[in-house]
Design goal:
The complex is a heterodimer.
Chain A (H helix, E strand, L loop, with lengths): L4 E3 L2 E4 L5 E6 L6 E8 L3 E9 L2 E5 L6 E5 L5 E5 L8 E8 L7 E3 L3 E5 L1
Parallel strand pairs in A: 2-11
Antiparallel strand pairs in A: 1-3, 3-8, 4-5, 4-9, 5-6, 7-8, 9-10, 9-11
Chain B lengths: L3 E4 L2 E5 L4 E7 L6 E6 L5 E6 L3 E5 L2 E6 L4 E6 L8 E11 L2 E6 L3 E6 L1
Parallel strand pairs in B: 2-11
Antiparallel strand pairs in B: 1-3, 3-8, 4-5, 4-9, 6-7, 7-8, 9-10, 9-11
Classes of the chains: A mainly beta, B mainly beta.
Amino acid sequence: KAGVTQTPRYLIKTRGQQVTLSCSPISGHRSVSWYQQTPGQGLQFLFEYFSETQRNKGNFPGRFSGRQFSNSRSEMNVSTLELGDSALYLCASSLDRRTYEQYFGPGTRLTVT
Amino acid sequence: GIQVEQSPPDLILQEGANSTLRCNFSDSVNNLQWFHQNPWGQLINLFYIPSGTKQNGRLSATTVATERYSLLYISSSQTTDSGVYFCAVVVLEFGNEKLTFGTGTRLTIIP
């Protein structure tokens, strides 16, 4: 069974631009979560989607948004990029929301200049 | 909110050595996971272990939920074991459930 895939793997954007990242979960997994990893803040939860609805949300500003499609694929969008948004963005999928046992994709490394 | 602390923060070992990584959490949890982040950033799911003991090859993990800690054992270390090891628990905060990660243990295996 294929793992979680994320595209693109690397991205360079300019401050003020917006960016969209994509995540395809493991087949059959309907829960998709997004995380931001930075050297200073570590791994932080952004949001979780299940059945095309945002179910949980972390402590990030409204510039960070996401959505999920009927095939469980998810996208996250960051508008008005800031230098501090430079990070590794990780997507994870889960079969069972009760356990939150999660499987991660390879990540998208975003650099904002 | 719940605090998840890992120790030691850094560990440097010779190939073939054994190691024990610890994860302490400040409140009761009903799930806990261990992950290995390789040098390329990929997070690998090692164990889902809310309680009890599990083993997978050279790795094993034990969670004592009543005492709020979990241990990850790595035996006969190999250079491919290098990377950062994270434990993570699900917490409920302001009506949102989220996976909260510890600060990690960076393991370096020297050939």
